[in-house]
Amino acid sequence: MKRIVILFTFFSLIFADTAIINVVNNLEGKKFSILSNEKQIMRVSDYKVVSRVVEIAPDSEISVYLDGYEVFRSVLKLETDFINTLIIDKPFSGDNDNEISLAISPIKISRGKDHLDGPIEIDSYNYPAPIDQKSYAINDEVTSLLEPSEVANVQIIHNSPYPVVDIYVDNAEALGDVPYRASTGLLQIPTSTTVSIAPANGDIIADFPFTLESDGNYVVTAAGILGNSLAPFGLIASGLEVTAVDSNHFGLKVFHGVTDAPAVDIYANGGLLVENLSYSEYAGYLQVPVGDYTIDVTAHGSEESVASFAAPLSGFGGGTGIVYASGFLASASDSAFSLILTTPSGYSVQLPSASTALSTIDEININPLAFSLNQNYPNPFNPSTTISFDVYEASRVSLSVFDLNGRLVKNLMSGNLGAGTYNINWNGKNINGLSVAGGVYFYSITSGENSIIKKMSLIK
Question: Which structural domains are found in the chain, ordered by start?
């Protein structure tokens, strides 16, 4: 399968006599050492996580070691104006001589004098750096003969069970043997084009014309079921963002692709994230603080979790991704209801199941005659949030934070207040001045026998 890997990162001033590399390990459970000119520059153990960026000489001899044994060595002629992502993957079919294959996906960057800590800007794509192809296989890369102004960047997600498909662009095969729940990196296709779908090695069964903006970024999701009138097969397009607002956030877009599920609400660490999302709809972008989340999916209007998933986003600061719901609620097979995260680089992972973060304790509103309590902002938050409330008549008011077990975490204020609006900040610390763990907390305002309780989510 052809692919492009796209990486967005941040960097310090890089000099013209160095090249930039990073590594993606597509072999689960394997740990690799990467050497440049016999000097170790990084160790890669995480599965499908982009490594840190390293600067090396443009003509470095790169070696890759697995369990102390060399599995790759070659002098790579690296361009100084590219991010060179090395992708370690399994050998190609019929390749019995090598333990790995190595692909290089270079991305053209702009790094002028003023770029000290800004995001890397994509200029264009170029062909891979030369490599010793007699000894080591290299994956193909999708390129375009069109001028940059005539193309758009498109990520394709295959979420239509179950066939393996071929994808055509203007009647020419662009991607072959794309399995269910797979996604591509960004592909360059003409702005006025027809994308077609065919069963693997079969004839085209559906054509979808698109008119796109030049240099625009899009996601196209194949969803629905062939021959099903209630959830017909189709390609659903939407805009795609490739960077978050800053390195402390992750730009999240959600797609509902479960044909037998009703409209849903989606919660992150107990806080409402997306409301009333129907089948075949996108929602987003949501700029969520980086951190580890528990995602709960409920029927719209309900707080009873249908399914819960762990979404570790701690290492994705500054990036974006799409979380799409896949499969069937009624299935217990490999097409069971799942959430899958994919990024513009083509990285894709099925989120593991988790215990629900939704509390069985409802928000309480008991005789709020003298005051009102507003939802904290931001929510979810890290490390601090602001709680606002209104006092309608002079009274003694207490504002406190409790954990899920009802234990006092911290009293934020207690005293006599006149009528007015008040804002109280909580920095995520307990009564002893220690930072509390991430999770769902309650905050309560009371005066005499009057009380209001609301929920908030702290992420770490």
Answer: 19-125 (2.60.40), 148-350 (no CATH), 364-458 (2.60.40.4070)
Contact 335, 327 (CB under 8 A): yes
- Residue 438 has which token pair? 């991430």
Report residue 159: phi and psi, to 5°. Answer: -125, 30
The 3 state secondary structure assigned to 332-355 is CCCCECEEEEECCCCCEEECCECC
- If one counts every other C-beta atom within 10 angstroms of the C-beta of residue 210, the result is 18
Q: Quick one: CA torsion of 235, 238, 240, 244, rounded to 10 degrees?
A: -130
Token digits for 258?
């479960």
Tokens representing 295? 């995602």
Tell me the whole-structure pTM to 2 decimals.
0.53
Separation CA 411–CA 397 (nearest Å): 11
| Cα–Cα dist 47/60, whole Å | 25
Alpha-carbon distances of 451 from 372, 409, 417, 418, rounded to whole Å: 9, 17, 16, 17
What's the chain's length in residues? 460
Task: Judge whether 32 and 169 are in contact, CB under 8 Å.
Answer: no
DSSP per-residue letters across 257-290: --TT---EEEEETTEEEEEEEPTT-EEEEEEEES
Question: CB 78: neighbour CB atoms within 10 A?
Answer: 22
Question: What DSSP character marks residue 31?
Answer: -
Cβ–Cβ under 8 Å, residues 351 and 338: yes
- The helix (run of H) or strand (run of E) holding residue 390 is strand 385-391
Which among 193, 201, 196, 199 is positioned nearest to 218, based on CA atoms? 193
Closest alpha carbon to 225 in 344, 339, 331, 346: 331
Poorest-pLDDT segment among 102-106, 218-222, 349-353: 102-106
Report the pLDDT value the prediction gives residue 126, as an integer from 0 to 100.
29
Which H, E and C letters describe 394-449, residue by residue?
Answer: CEEEEEEEECCCCCEEEEEEEEEECCEEEEEEECCECCCCCECCCEEEEEEEEECC
Tell me the per-residue pLDDT of 199-212, one tens digit each, with 9 for 90 and over: 888 888 888 888 88
How is residue 154 written in tokens?
A: 């498109």
Place of tokens 């037998």: 260
Span 273-318, pLDDT tens digits: 899 999 999 998 888 888 888 999 988 888 788 889 999 888 888 8
Contact 196, 167 (CB under 8 A): yes
